[in-house]
Amino acid sequence: MTVRSKHRGLSLLIAALTLPLGLTAAVTPASASASGSSSAKPTVVLVHGVFADSSGWNETIARLQRAGFPVIAAANPLRDLDGDAAYVSSIIDTIPGPVIMVGHSYGGAAITNAARGHANVKALVYVAAFAPDKGETPLELAGRFPGSELPHALVVRPYPGGKDGYIDPAKFRSVFAADLPASQTRLMAATQRPGSVDGLSGHSGVPAWKSVPSWFVIPSKDNVIPPAVQRFMAKRAGGTITEVAGASHVVMMSRPDTVVRQIVAAHTATR
Is 90 exceeded by the pLDDT of residue 16? Predict the structure, then answer.
């Protein structure tokens, strides 16, 4: 390769990486092009919560993609509620068509705020998730009714500028994912993504569920967000509720078919 061709290749790469947002915003998600039928369906944006990452949605994603839905699993920063919601909102800015937003756990608080102001968000699906009203915090909601085992399992580690919360690995399975194999939860405990205590204590803004229809998946054996708390939030939002007997907080991993059915129900009701 000549020096001139190397320089030309470098220039093309730099140009590609510095395209203005106005051009990249119209790009169709890669998953949308994987199926010819997906263009008629909304993009499903999945938002994970604390102590997890986007891989927790893998079984859900596989089923949605087989059904022809474009899917984006957002990498929730887990730093502060306002910033996390703004990050997820910026992803919605790049999607030209209809969107269904799905949040797990703290991810529910993120979509509650991120969906606000986006006319293309047609439905909100809360999966073992927080659906706060204005001024409420995830931590306050978790303790509104008894049953959460998280406070006694939380390990706080300082980092420059704040504090992160982890689940004690010895308690991870019983608190977070009791219906998954121990071999799997040991890996999950070791690779868990911590959440900033500031994020979990962040006050929510005006909730999108007041103007966008909502669906809820409530696991009956959730030891992080008590089912009573989830029922309270779902009824307050006027949401459509599915309860899953025996399921843990990670119901999207242990019962992905149920979660997908709720997402499809949301699509059917809002298309």
Answer: no
User: What 3-state DSSP class applies to 167?
Assistant: strand
**Using an 8 Å Cβ cutoff, are 249 and 176 in contact?**
yes
Strands, sheet with 214-219, edge to edge from the N-terminal-most edge strand: 71-74, 43-47, 99-104, 121-127, 214-219, 240-244
Structure tokens at 143: 């303790």
In whole angstroms, what is the distance from residue 270 CA to residue 137 CA? 29
State the pLDDT confidence band at 198, using cuts at 50, 70 and 90.
confident
Token output for 123: 């439905």
* SS3 state of residue 214: strand
196 three-state secondary structure: strand
145-172 as b/e: b if 16+ CB within 10 A: eeebbbeebbeeeeeeeeebbbbeeebb
In 138-194, which ranges are continuous DSSP H helix?
A: 138-142, 172-176, 182-191
pTM attached to this predicted model:
0.87
User: How far does the chain reach from its first CA to its final CA, in angstroms?
Assistant: 53
- Burial class of residue 33 (count of CB atoms within 10 Å of its CB; 0-12, 13-18, 19+): exposed
